[in-house]
Design goal:
FAD/NAD(P)-binding domain, 5-stranded antiparallel sheet
């Protein structure tokens, strides 16, 4: 494929395909994956590398047979130089190991993954290489990068599909339907995209930075990271006062940040004095009412397997 551009303004005018046919257009969406054929190779938009904060750059993925009743959760299992996912599906289990090639070679990664599977492998592990980061602009001239061509963050929070959906919604909101491309629309698209992905980036970095694990060089380097100022502020704010605030265009809400920081061992030094306005009897009654409400509802619900069987059973493979 050849990308044709206007020599006067650099805009993409069309794509010449392998069979010689030409696809012309006014606006192009780059979905060419890590290669970034339009946004990167043609328009020269730089890729901002975030490897200094996110050390993992490799993954192995493999499918296995199911060995137990379908659990209603995905597992993220920490290892010496990264982590492993285990995602139960109806007819198989998705597994993978995300790791830092600086701290674990491919052979060791293969052995680590294969030695921690719960079922029989259904395929050979598929290697994936990536550089965590984001294009400095996801829309330049008449090209919008969506998906891997715009950037990639490792899947510890499975945000890739969400970011694709948000990019499509954002594009619809500023779509140039009544005339030529408007630079202010492009600027707003880029600003919102950058803001959103920076929040997600910080949330993922937090998983590594604030852990108490120090048994390997990988985890020691994670603990020693000089994190972005935006994340440093969030950590300091929670540690000193127990406060968490959700910013505009942010995917993860206050409860997600609280769960990660408390779960990794950060206990606030102070708390808001309004918490003392509720006495012990009133607090106990309030919490018990929540517990009773949740228990009552949960007891009426089908199990995870029953729900799937009833409403969304997959066809046999």
């Amino acid at each position: 494929m050849q990308v044709n551009t206007n020599p006067a303004n650099g805009y993409i005018t069309g794509l010449t395909m392998a069979d010689g046919s030409v696809i012309e257009g006014d606006l192009f969406i780059d979905c060419s994956g890590f290669r970034g054929l339009l946004i990167g190779q043609t328009l020269g938009v730089e890729y901002e590398d975030w490897s200094k904060w996110l050390l993992c750059d490799s993954a192995l993925a493999v499918q296995t047979s199911s060995t137990s009743a379908l659990p209603p959760l995905t597992r993220a299992i920490a290892h010496g130089s990264g982590w492993q996912w285990r995602i139960p599906l109806q007819h198989r289990v998705g597994n993978g190991l995300v790791y830092s090639s600086k701290h674990m070679d491919d052979e060791t990664a293969h052995k680590t993954l294969m030695g921690n599977l719960a079922g029989e492998p259904l395929m050979n592990p598929k290697p994936i290489r990536f550089t965590p980061g984001q294009r400095v602009q996801t829309w330049r001239k008449n090209c919008v990068a969506i998906g891997l061509s715009s950037g990639f963050l490792e899947p510890i929070e499975s945000t890739s599909i969400h970011m694709i959906q948000r990019s499509l919604i954002r594009l619809l909101q500023v779509f140039p339907a009544n005339g030529p491309l408007c630079q202010s629309d492009i600027d707003e698209f880029n600003t919102q995209a950058a803001t959103e992905v920076h929040h997600i980036r910080d949330f993922i970095i937090a998983h590594y930075k604030i852990t108490n694990r120090r048994d390997t060089q990988f985890w020691r380097e994670c603990a020693a990271l000089e994190v972005p100022p935006t994340l440093r502020h969030r950590i300091d704010l929670f540690r000193e006062s127990g406060k968490v605030f959700k910013a505009a265009h942010e995917l993860f809400a206050e409860n997600s940040w609280i769960q990660v920081m408390l779960g990794q061992g950060i206990l606030p030094e102070r708390y808001h004095p309004i918490a003392d306005r509720m006495g012990e009897p009133e607090l106990a009654h309030f919490l018990n009412s929540i517990k009773s409400s949740v228990s009552g509802l949960a007891n009426q619900l089908p199990t995870h397997a029953e729900y799937i069987s009833r409403y969304c059973r997959a066809q046999p493979l």
